């Protein structure tokens, strides 16, 4: 069963926010712990073992799917 897109988007936003904070404050133990918690949650949600793979999977899952465009009227073949 797949999680809802809203849930995935929310967790991905949290992951990215903590990732930015960790990059800005790499020695902050609290920031590191929160980042690791959000990374773990995203991994579980997306069924991945690595945080980067989970973030990539979440982005792929949230990407809009291309919808087929109808053929122009002159290109349609009647059978």
Structural overview:
With 79 residues, the chain is an all-alpha fold. The protein has one domain (5-62). The chain has helices at residues 5-24, 29-46, 51-62. The protein is elongated and about 60 Å long.
- Low-pLDDT windows of residues: none
Cα end-to-end separation: 40 Å
Largest sheet: none
Shape: elongated
Order of helices and strands: HHH
Helical stretch tally: 3
Counted up, domains total 1
Helices and strands in order:
Layout: H1 5-24, H2 29-46, H3 51-62
Helix pairs in contact: 1-2, 1-3, 2-3
Short account of what is shown:
By secondary structure, the protein is an all-alpha fold. The protein has three helices and no strands.
Characteristic terms for this protein:
79 residues; 0% strand; mainly alpha; single chain; elongated; 63% helix
